[in-house]
Specification:
- This protein is of the alpha+beta class and 632 residues long.
- The chain has 23 helices and 19 strands.
- The strands form six sheets. Strands 1-8-5-6-4-7 form a six-stranded mixed beta sheet, with helices on both faces.
- It is globular and about 85 Å long.
- It starts with a strand and ends in a 21-residue tail after the last helix.
- The C terminus is likely disordered.
Length: 632
């Protein structure tokens, strides 16, 4: 890690982060302490969510060393909150946090204990700063709730780290603070990771090369090729070929030749260019089907993409932990543990060639190449949301970037990614593209949290293995089956193996992938048939599992079904916003009331509605004349 970056544990064996001889001072140009309920309760929740087997990054602290003390440039709200938290927990802190020219704030910090004990006779309440007093009151309330587990909380607090980042000497602090204030956000973990990995490289030109590739990959909008901008597209063509669609090379020297010797342009423009009559900004958008302009949106953000890529790297290079019984990477994709994940690989990882810690420079080069190649595969073979013209309604898309025109007039356009053998018809590829879109979108809507999108990692590893051999031969025609096998394994492990004695009655706890994979099978079977009833079906975020025949019928309206109501045949998956209105109605009422929702809903739900017959008697029956929901 860079000498300017220090890892601070909130509490540890040798005290806490405020047990220091260096004073933290909040300069006058910073606003007063202002965190309220929302931010402080979130701080407590973040700490309570920490897993006990790894460190947890909770933010950065930007400081400038001035006259033997740290002037806090950014992060003062969190720093002050942590100071208050430790004191509310009864942990003694040195008086190392002060506010410049704010006597009330300093007086309040020095009298936290008296405020907690409500010893008003010992303090001058007129000298108490209201914002800090409010923070103390909120934290104290949270820490004294009945369900608060102090012992567990302290164990987790010991895992919390803050990165203190010193700005270089001679930095214009006014300008720096203005920029940070304009951004309205803290330095992110991936910013720190970038600086750390670049610090492993000793050559400035290589650091510049690393930064250019990183910056291109970090923009998750559109396709990565479009983030390499240079005169006459020289860099783009050197990396991705004349058609802008070839796999990036696996050689550091080729990147040095492609980028280092060519001027990489920024997205800025000269005034003389702007006033030209035919001036046009090149952007990530392109065209499909003639004049239809499209833009693309990634299904994950950059910090998560970094974690997927790290797992790809670990798989490709056979990285293992130096302690055989320890994991080199966590199963969960937790963006809060991004730095911890990379630190573990660098400090504890070993490969066939030795310890990564002994060759950090090679790791930095290898990872940045892996990042670009994985991003290329991600763009080409992992679904995106595609938006046509100015529409806000997106659709699932699996397209590749192509180029039209010659020389300086080349422009990007987008067409379906290829999943065919050489010589096969375009219509065959369209068929396979649709199958891949449906299977991946079924996975996407089943796993809504980016922390559990392991299907993306598995697909990227399959695409990357053995120098990407699977995209160079007919194996790519089976890509939909690779994705389908991920769904099959999930259904088997989380449903069939969980349910006992052939009774599939998990009720509302039934995993969403079970419903979505069934819909995929029904859609695929229908597509191969003659009727084509479900050609309009698309996977959407249907996140609420509900009973078709209700668990608790409205009082006195119809009979309760006591046995079997939780079985899979009686369950459906719908949009969460329909939930409250949907739950206690009879199947017949649901069929008539929600017919517009049903006709566009899950295929299983449509079939259940079709199988629901009108009651022939006043007393309803759980199974409607032999065509009950268990047949759905």
């Amino acid at each position: 890690m860079s000498k300017l970056v220090t890892e601070l544990h909130i509490i540890g064996e040798n005290g806490n982060m405020f047990d220091t001889d260096m004073e933290y001072i909040i300069p006058l140009y910073q606003r007063a302490y202002a965190w309220e309920d929302k931010q402080l309760t979130q701080l407590i929740e973040d700490i309570n969510d920490v897993a006990e087997d790894s460190n947890y990054y909770i933010g950065s602290l930007i400081v400038s060393k001035q006259f033997g003390r740290y002037e806090v440039v950014d992060g003062q709200q969190r720093l002050t909150s942590l100071y208050l938290l430790l004191n509310c927990l009864g942990i003694k802190t040195k008086p190392t946090l002060t506010f410049a020219c704010r006597e009330k704030s300093n007086y309040t910090l020095r009298n936290i204990e008296e405020l907690l004990l409500e010893n008003r006779s010992k303090i001058d309440m007129d000298r108490i700063e209201p914002g800090i007093q409010r923070g103390i009151r909120i934290l104290s309330h949270e820490l004294t709730k009945d369900h608060f587990d102090r012992e567990s909380f302290m164990e987790k607090l010991a895992k919390i780290i803050v990165y203190r980042i010193e700005v270089p000497e001679n930095t214009d602090l006014n300008r720096y603070y203005e920029i940070m204030n304009t951004r309205g956000e803290q330095l992110e973990q991936h910013d720190i990771l970038k600086a750390t990995l670049m610090s492993y490289l000793s050559d400035d030109s290589e650091k510049g090369l690393f930064a250019k590739i990183w910056d291109a990959c970090s923009d998750m909008t559109g396709y990565v090729q479009m983030h390499f901008i240079s005169k006459n597209n020289a860099v783009r063509e050197a990396i991705f070929g004349s058609e802008w669609n070839s796999m990036p090379p696996n050689s550091w020297q080729k990147y040095k030749k492609a980028i280092s010797g060519t001027t990489q342009e920024t997205t800025g423009h000269k005034i003389c260019d702007l006033i030209e009559k035919n001036f046009k900004v090149e952007d990530d958008e392109g065209y499909v089907d003639g004049d239809v302009r499209v833009r693309f949106e990634s299904v994950i953000e950059f910090p998560y993409f970094l974690l997927h890529t790290l797992k790809v790297y670990v798989s490709l290079y056979g990285v293992t932990h130096e302690i055989a019984t320890s994991k080199i990477v966590d199963e969960l994709l937790d963006d809060k543990k991004l730095l911890d994940a990379f630190n573990r690989v660098v400090s504890c990882g070993i490969t066939d060639t030795g310890r990564i810690a002994d060759s950090k420079e090679d790791f930095a080069r290898g990872f940045i190449i892996c990042l670009l190649r994985t991003r290329y595969l991600f763009d080409k073979y992992i679904i995106k949301r595609e938006y046509a013209n100015d529409s806000a309604d997106g659709e699932w898309s699996l397209k590749s970037l192509y180029v039209s025109g010659q020389q300086s007039k080349k422009k990007a356009y987008y067409g379906n990614s290829e999943f065919t053998r050489s010589g096969e018809w375009t219509c065959t590829n369209d068929w396979r593209t649709k199958t891949n879109i449906m299977m991946q979108s079924a996975l996407r809507v089943s796993y809504t949290s980016p922390k559990v999108m392991h299907w993306i990692t598995k697909l990227l590893i399959w695409l990357s293995e053995a120098d990407c051999k699977n995209i160079k031969n007919d194996a790519i025609t089976k890509f939909d089956k690779v994705a389908e096998n991920i769904a099959i394994d999930a259904v088997r492990e989380n449903f069939f193996q969980v349910c006992s004695n052939g009774v599939y009655a998990m009720g509302v706890n039934t995993p969403h992938i079970v419903f979505n994979y069934l819909d995929y099978l029904l859609w695929n079977d229908d597509r191969n048939g003659k009727k084509k009833k479900y050609s309009d079906f698309v996977f959407e975020f249907r996140n609420s599992v509900e009973h078709w025949y209700p668990q608790n019928p409205s009082e006195g309206t119809f009979e309760q079904w006591k046995d079997g109501v939780d079985q899979f045949g009686n369950l459906c998956i719908i949009q969460r916003n329909v939930n409250s209105k949907f739950s206690n109605m009879s199947p017949e009422a649901k069929k008539s009331t929600f017919k517009d929702m049903i006709v566009k809903g899950s295929i299983k739900l449509r079939i259940m509605s079709e199988l629901t017959e009108k009651k022939r008697r006043q007393t309803s029956q759980p199974l409607l004349e032999g065509k009950g929901v268990q047949g759905a």
